[in-house]
Amino acid sequence: MIPGSAGKEKSVFRSYIEVRRVQEEDVNSIFQIAASVGTGEKDSSQGFLVDDYSSDPEYYKDKFKELSKRLDHFYVAENVTSKRRKQIVGFLIGYTKEQWLEDNPTWIEDVHWHPSFDQHRLNNFLVIDKTAIQSYLTGHGIGSELYKRLITDIRAKNIETILAETIISPTPNFASLAFRKKQDYHLAGVRYENYSGDTYTDLVYYKDISNFY
């Protein structure tokens, strides 16, 4: 919640969320949001992005700029005031199968797939890589609005499965795990990766988009 705001402010805020495709000029705002939840300190209860964005701002801004040009499903959420002023308050980055494997060519082989997971789902899927909301604005339904736009777009492409990873070690992301449970995701597998000298454990979840909204 915005510091000093009351319940009424939350209701008004949610009434003016608009979601659109990212534009290159959004990069600075996207970086600021990423930096607000991607720091050196990881808060398990609030959720976090793994990278420490303040460590190399120009690198991460260039990365966001490159993704804004290349990815089909990179969205921003804007808060639109009664005076039509707009402020970016969240973003979602999704990769089609082809885009994901271009950046992560051995990913399918690296995942230890759960026996109950139907691997025919891997014929066509979308991976949610990052969803971030301005740190003091969580709980306003911004993430749900981002997902609604994503689902509308991928249904038109006949993509039926969404995959997403959640870190459980070395620092578990309890907020992300709670979101997966709330949204009725199912466990698909587990993956181990080396990052900055540590071994990370990622749970891979899936959901059929027919179960969204």
Provide an overview of this structure:
The protein contains 7 helices and 8 strands. The chain is of the alpha+beta class and 213 residues long. It starts with 6 loop residues before the first helix and ends in a 5-residue tail after the last strand. Helix 2 packs across helix 3. It has an 8-stranded mixed beta sheet. It has a single domain, classed as 3-Layer(aba) Sandwich (Aminopeptidase). Strand 2 and strand 3 form a beta hairpin.
Q: From the alpha-carbon coordinates, what is the Rg to the nearest angstrom?
A: 17 Å
Number of strand segments: 8
**Span from first to last CA?**
25 Å
Q: Under CATH, the topology is which?
A: Aminopeptidase
The CATH homologous superfamily corresponds to: Gcn5-related N-acetyltransferase (GNAT)
Topology:
Blueprint: H1 7-14, E1 17-21, H2 27-37, H3 57-70, E2 73-80, E3 86-96, H4 97-103, H5 107-110, E4 112-113, E5 126-133, H6 142-155, E6 161-169, H7 174-182, E7 186-195, E8 198-208
Helix pairs in contact: 2-3
Provide tags for this entry.
Aminopeptidase, 213 residues, alpha+beta, eight-stranded mixed beta sheet
Characterize this entry briefly:
The protein is of the alpha+beta class and 213 residues long. It has helices at 7-14, 27-37, 57-70, 97-103, 107-110, 142-155, 174-182; strands spanning 17-21, 73-80, 86-96, 112-113, 126-133, 161-169, 186-195, 198-208.
